[in-house]
Design a protein that fits this description.
Helix content is 42%, strand content 17%. The radius of gyration is 19 Å and the shape is globular. Helix 8 packs parallel to helix 11. It has 11 helices and 8 strands. It has helices at 25-36, 78-88, 107-117, 139-147, 151-158, 170-176, 187-197, 218-233, 242-251, 259-266, 272-297, and strands at 15-21, 45-51, 68-72, 93-97, 102-103, 123-131, 165-169, 202-213.
């Protein structure tokens, strides 16, 4: 796709930006700084921060622009927090990012331009650039380089997009409902499938960009794998019996042969040793996810962090 150029919009569109936060005020400050310097007219967008731990308010030195406000959502989970933000929002378009993301300066404008230019789309999933700690990538960063935030693939394959960088017209939520607030992970996928099945198309916005720090340690990846596994277990259209849950677990104990294609496609510049490292981590995380999904399906509480 060719880079999108900024255009003169045919009308003023008010945008609501929603960001859930859970004990992450230090990184949220960097995100707010980027959101406060957008080249979209300041009177045409609002920023809603949803504190998902009301007992942990922002520090005294936390600074916000005039078009930003904080609301609280005590129900655990980022999707419950996003739902609270949607209810409070007044925008015709609603955009989402995370507290650890840094939106590029033309992020909002390019998203609005994309939806204005491409009338067939009612949603847009933007590009997520990874930030690395140094030029020498850790094993965790090598894995993220290959597997993290493949938005273009999510759009083309599933008709979904992750909420680290996603915009939607409000009428889509009015039609298909809010996120599943009971999910701790995977709620963007579950909602995206509902929107897709209701014929609300999604496009990939290459120029709608946020930056996101790559997870540098395998330990961080394991935490995410557990959240994903627990989230999948709660999808109502997923495994319908303990026998099926066991089958899913056993199936993921097999070596992930299909992963070779992904590693060699997205990791062309990696050495043979690095590719083997990524494949090994992928297999380990696949087992962790499957086990967590099986565990939660048997009635255990899902992991949040």
């Amino acid at each position: 796709m060719e880079p999108q150029k900024s255009v003169v919009m045919n009308k003023d569109i008010f945008v609501s930006i929603i960001t859930p936060i859970y004990n992450d005020w230090e990184r949220m400050a960097h995100c707010i700084s980027a959101l406060s310097t957008q080249n979209y007219p300041v009177h045409l967008y609002e920023i809603i921060l949803v504190n998902n731990n009301p007992g942990h308010p922002p520090p005294n030195e936390f600074s916000m622009p005039s078009n930003c406000r904080i609301i609280a959502e005590p129900k655990p989970g980022s999707y419950a927090a996003r739902n609270a933000g949607i209810r409070a929002a007044t925008g015709e378009i609603i955009g989402f990012t995370d507290s650890d993301c840094i939106p590029h300066r033309n992020w909002i404008r390019n998203a609005v331009d994309f939806l204005t230019l491409h009338k067939k789309y009612s949603r847009v999933a933007g590009r997520i650039e990874l930030l690395y700690q140094s030029e020498t990538l850790t094993p965790g960063e090598l894995y993220e380089k290959v597997y993290a935030f493949n938005q273009h693939r999510y759009v083309e394959r599933d008709g979904t997009g992750v909420t680290a960088n996603m915009f939607s017209y409000r009428f889509v939520f009015d039609s298909v409902g809010l996120f599943n607030g009971d999910l701790l992970s995977g709620g963007d996928y579950e909602w995206g499938v509902r929107a897709r099945d209701a014929n609300f198309s999604i496009g990939y916005g290459h120029e709608v960009v946020v930056s996101h720090p790559a997870r540098s340690s395998v330990r961080e990846l394991v935490k995410k794998a557990k959240r994903v596994g627990g989230g999948h277990a709660l999808f109502k259209y997923q495994l319908s019996s303990k026998a099926m849950a066991l089958f899913y677990l056993l199936n993921h104990l097999r070596p992930p042969l299909r992963s070779f294609r992904m590693v060699f496609k997205r990791g062309r510049d990696l050495s043979a040793t690095q590719k083997l490292t990524v494949l090994s981590i992928h297999y380990y995380l696949s087992v962790v996810t499957a086990w967590e999904r099986f565990r939660v399906h048997l009635g255990k509480m899902p992991n949040r962090v």
